Amino acid sequence: MEAPDNVSEYWFLEFYRVLVTRIDNENYVSVDVYREEWPWSLDGSTKICVKDEEYCLLYHVIDRDLVNKVFDKLAENIVKVEAVGVKTRDKLETVNVRYIIRGELKYNDIEQLFYNSWKLIGCSPPSIEELPIQ
């Protein structure tokens, strides 16, 4: 299946993907991350659950001050940042960071979004040694 012209895919550390969908002058960026916890209060997050509250998708809008602190000039064009997580029984995981960004994005911007997404969720990206063996 071929991707539409307005969708770009970038891979980092072999296992993590950044998808960029461009619509008009805005980019919708989805960054794969993984943290074995949810660093925000569940009360301050949006939950969409199935089967009572046993299985849920979690959404948390990242504070603008943190976005400005983590990103330099790119922060001016970032409209919104949201972390996405999952809750399965008693386990919470952070799995994605999503952005809405105005203007053109260059590869350096995509790379900065990938690496800084880990900072936004409160951890460092995995090192090559930590990745699963192929």
Quick tags:
single chain, 134 residues, alpha+beta
**Rg, Å, rounded:** 15 Å
Question: Strand pairing plus helix content: what structural class?
Answer: alpha+beta
Main sheet summary: 7 strands, antiparallel
Principal-axes shape call: globular
Proportion in β-strands: 35-45%
**How many separate domains make up the residues?**
1
* CA(first)-CA(last) distance: 25 Å
Q: Helix share of residues?
A: 10-25%
**Succession of helices and strands:** EEEEEHEEH
Which sequence of strands runs across the widest sheet? 1-2-3-7-6-5-4
Q: Give the number of DSSP strands.
A: 7
Annotation field: number of helices? 2
Please give a structural write-up.
The chain contains 2 helices and 7 strands; from the N terminus they run βββββαββα. With about 130 residues, the protein is of the alpha+beta class. It has one domain. It has a 7-stranded antiparallel beta sheet, with helices on one face. Strand 1 (about 5-10) and strand 2 form a beta hairpin. The longest helix is centred in the last third of the chain and has 14 residues, at about 105-120. The chain is globular, with a radius of gyration of 15 Å.
